[in-house]
TrEMBL record:
It is found in: Cell membrane. This is Cytochrome b. The keyword Cell membrane applies. The chain crosses the membrane at residues 12-34, 54-71, 83-112, 149-168. It is a multi-pass membrane protein.
Length: 188
């Protein structure tokens, strides 16, 4: 007897509702965290608390997004030259790395400098590691640098999405947007 092959499942036309919700919530929060970045000791404490709280939300949502992504079917990429597919995959990979590296360097730097995380509603999370101020300072600087680099990457990614929509007209942008049931990659 032959084992029954599972019915081939068509890839979906769009990213799922929850994947889209994660994507757009993370995008808005990354931009907000960047706009509220502390610039030196004269930054008001409330701005620091908003920055750190929003940044922590980015970290938690990115973990949830990545876990959800494991079992969530994604749309098929449009046909494109191999180098472009490689470039797109690398850009997405770098964005995922940044979503973790930016908040984690912030936490490590803050704790190594001997400071607690200071979040909204008076939440303070004391360091879990021994201080090493010089290292903490370098890692905090790296955090600021990575945070800005991430914004440039996201900007490039957003431009690519707009090029897909308006120049290549392949519906990639629509696949990350809620909408009609027609195939967004066929009718863009
Ligand atoms: C996606 C999330 C985040 C982004 C895009 C981001 C971005 C930035 C940027 C660009 C700076 C440098 C500001 C400047 O020097 O002009 C900065 C500084 C800083 N960020 Fe974040 N950040 C994020 C998450 C976090 C988190 C989770 C914390 C929590 C500890 C945090 C704590 C800090 C602190 C304490 C500084 C000042 C560092 C210093 O003393 O030089 N950030 N951030
Ligand atoms: C900080 C901001 C952003 C971050 C961190 C981000 C991150 C990501 C990541 C990691 C993916 C890959 C999703 C996956 O395969 O699971 C993705 C996909 C996508 N993003 Fe963004 N994104 C941001 C902003 C934007 C903006 C502003 C636009 C539109 C103008 C956009 C449009 C898209 C589209 C269309 C896809 C699907 C690409 C495809 O299937 O090839 N993103 N984004």
């Amino acid at each position: 007897m032959h084992p029954v092959a599972p019915a081939p499942t068509e890839p979906p036309l769009r990213y799922g509702a929850l994947a889209q919700a994660f994507h757009w919530a993370i995008a808005v929060l990354v931009l907000a965290a960047w706009l509220l970045s502390p610039e030196g000791p004269r930054t008001p404490p409330s701005q620091r608390q908003w920055h750190e709280t929003i940044g922590m939300a980015v970290l938690l949502l990115s973990v949830a997004h990545l876990v959800w992504r494991i079992g969530d079917p994604r749309p098929e990429p449009p046909a494109m030259p191999r180098w472009l597919a490689w470039f797109a995959a690398m850009l997405h990979g770098l964005l995922y790395v940044a979503l973790f590296a930016v908040p984690l360097t912030a936490i490590a730097g803050t704790w190594l400098e001997g400071h607690p995380l200071t979040l909204l509603a008076g939440v303070r999370i004391a360091p879990w590691i021994e201080p090493d101020r010089a290292l903490g300072h370098s890692i905090s600087e790296l955090h600021g640098w990575l945070g800005t680099a991430m914004l440039w990457l996201a900007g490039l990614h957003a431009v690519a999405a707009l090029v897909h929509h308006f120049v290549l007209r392949d519906g990639v942008l629509l696949s990350m947007l809620p909408g009609r049931r027609r195939d967004p990659r066929a009718d863009a």
